[in-house]
Amino acid sequence: MTPWASFVMVMVFTAHHAFPFPFRDIAHGIWHKYPNDYSSHITSVDVVDQSFLPNGTIRTERLITIRQNAPRWIMKLVGSSEDQYVREVIFYKPAALSNQKPMILMSSINLTMSSFLVCREQIRYQPSCSNSTNFIQRAVIQAQGSLASGNSWGILGSKLETWSRDRFASNAANGRQGFYSVLNSLFGPRHSAPSSSSMLDTAHQGLTNPSDSIKFA
Fold this sequence. Notes:
Residues 10-191 form the PRELI/MSF1 domain. InterPro entries: PRELI/MSF1_dom, Slowmo/Ups. 23% of the residues lie in helices and 40% in strands. The chain contains three helices and eight strands; from the N terminus they run βαββαββββαβ. It starts with 7 loop residues before the first strand and ends in a 9-residue tail after the last strand.
């Protein structure tokens, strides 16, 4: 049993969706996702490193530049610029490596403002059948330092967490819409993006273990 001391109060966002595209199309489309008309907050994506792990998994590290257009009160609070940077690592595990299904795992963490707020995101793509790919997304958002305390600064920290969660949820929905537009552009207009109400997104505040993650197995 995990002791309660290992749990912390955070904002959590999760999403589950089935893309009606085969896994090979998803794996190709990921590298062409940006730019798209739905994700204008992503201003640049740069590959920092790419390598093969000993087990044959392909590891790619990217630096993503984001412009969030944050409210003025947040900019005054953290004293940051409009441009923010995110470190993303992508692991692609081909089916040939084992008897299991192929899989793509993506993890990211913000580099900008990380002394005030940390957002850890994980995404997994895995084929569910020959023409469909399961998508699972999880983000944990937590204020840092004095903003995570229970005093008056903690109230601001909670407000910052809530805004960040809501903005993340909005960007995530737009990101899926954008990915659909890219996939249809690459492979033909076979599918239209579903409405956001048909997607299983949840956002809540609660206790979680920081070590919890989407399993890469």
